[in-house]
Amino acid sequence: MRHFKYAIIALGIVWSSTGSADILVRGGKIISGDRDQSFVADILISGKLIIEIGRDLSVSDGTIVIDASGKTVTTGLINSDTQLGLTEVGAVKQTRDYETGNKRITASLRVSDAINSNSVAIPYNRMLGLTHAVVQPNSKGGLFAGTAAIIKLTDRDTVQQTSAAMVVKLGSQGQRLAGGSRAAAMAMLREAFEDARDYRDNRDSFNRGARRDYPLSRHDLEALIPVLEGRMPLIVHVDRAVDIERVIDFAALNKVKLIIASADEGWRVAEKIAANKVPVIIDPMSNLPSSYDSLGARLDNAKLLNDAGVTLLFTGGGSHKAQLVRQSAGNAVANGLPYNAAIKAMTSNPAQVFGMDNMGNISEGSIANVVIWSGDPLEQSTSVESVFIEGVDQPLVSRNTRLRDRYFSRLKNSTGN
Q1: pTM above 0.90, yes or no
Q2: In terms of DSSP bridges, do strands 6-8 and 64-67 run parallel, antiparallel, or are they unpaired?
Q3: What gap in Å lies between CA 87 and CA 94, rounded to an integer?
């Protein structure tokens, strides 16, 4: 029904390489992470790509034209820490696939093996502007939670990257998993990397039974090799400032591509984080000391980290409401973060950090992940009018809207209105 706003320029159809008509988004205000200022322009989409951006673009007969005058256009938003596709009902264990207590499967756990593309949370978040998410496991059996995945919020071919990063939980959670001491957690982390390096260099001897045993399983050690060799980043969840410093020193010594997550006290060591070029995933809404690790939590954490030159990636809203990352971004702006930095933290920064090629910006040659908003995307009163993922128009329908429509129609029938 919502396609009444589309106009077909002529009766003929121009087919792109993917078999769908070209699309022109006409006259929207474009906000893109690679530009300091917004600008008004047309966007021409052909197949999966944005092929041209400019004013008053001419198009072929059959191109679908969407009038975006007075509206805002961004690339699809990315939440960098979710369990989308891994959990349906938090209180029902059978619907949770983001952690395991099996101590034989830690680093080798791949959440991509469990992602459910039919999760009801996917269309709900998609219709509200989220097009991609980093899906992270949680630690239960060991320091290493496993490998994170990147998903696109589509009904098919949902997993975009199976091994986006290795995830580790330190701080108070790592203290518990290591038996009650942060020092033990760091010792276990060092031992794991030393063993993974030894295993890699002596794999044949190990397979012949001529090498010592390791605390981690062979599959866990194999999973750590891409991190050792710099082919996969290491996400470490940690909040306390001194713990952040120790993790940075560990990563520098081992030449690991580090990403800090949570970082409630990141502002205390912002200069060191920036000097070591470590990206940080934070929820800008986190301002309460939920544990002794985050006594220094504050609402301007994002501003202070950005002022120091730290690359920011945002999360927020939890898995079922992962689209609320934009509310977190809006609060960061309200507490001093520049507007464009907030947009980048949900678009171009995660795309760059996680190697999502040709994504994260509205630019020629980029993948056509495009969202049309009724107004400012950081205002909660703003609604989504269209979502395109890889050039495909996505339905703005979810279980929530279907239930609404079902019972609204029954109410109308019962009242006669």
Answers
A1: yes
A2: antiparallel
A3: 9
